[in-house]
Amino acid sequence: MDQPPIPAAPRHRAALAFIYVTVLLDMLAFGIIIPVLPHLIEQLAGGGIARAAWWVGIFSTVFALVQFVFSPVQGALSDRFGRRPVILISNLGLAVDFWCWRWRPRCGCCSWRASC
Q1: pLDDT classification of 65: cutoffs 50, 70, 90
Q2: 98: nearest Cα among 31, 40, 2
Q3: How far apart are CA 53 and CA 10, in angstroms?
Q4: CA dist., res. 36 & res. 109, Å (int)
Q5: Do residues 45 and 51 lie in contact, with contact meaning Cβ atoms separated by under 8 Å?
Q6: Is the pTM of this model over 0.70?
Q7: Cα(93)–Cα(69) distance, integer angstroms
Q8: Burial of 73 (0-12, 13-18, 19+ CB in 10 A)
Q9: CB within 8 A of 53, min separation 6: which ones?
């Protein structure tokens, strides 16, 4: 009656690891921007913390609206091309964003300098 547990297939484990890495990258992005954003906005927009809080609210609202609009688009792309390629391309976009933020102080393309 007692049957030994069936080990997970290697492909299933690879898919699970892929999902964990993707979630880790997303949480890393939020963990980087959330503590820095209010201070960065306060430096850029001038004014006080109230004005910076207003802008953080605007950015959060825009982020939520963009997710609301483009989630069905990404779902349709996943249905057509498969989840893995769509998630890989999304992660590539996130990596490019990280790279741009990393090299921003050195590129001279910004007229402002933040002390982050």
Answers
A1: very high
A2: 31
A3: 47
A4: 20
A5: yes
A6: no
A7: 18
A8: exposed
A9: 38
List the structure tokens of 3: 């049957």
109 token code pair: 């393309």
Tokens 């933040």 identify what position? 114
27, 69, 72, 92 from 75: Cα distances, Å: 21, 11, 5, 17
Give me the sign of the Cα torsion angle 34, 95, 86, 74: positive
Tokens of 48: 């006080």
- Calculate ∠ Cα 62-65-70, nearest 5°: 120
For 25-38, b where at least 16 C-beta lie within 10 A, e where not — what string? eeeeeeeeeeeeee
The whole-number pLDDT of residue 23 equals 87
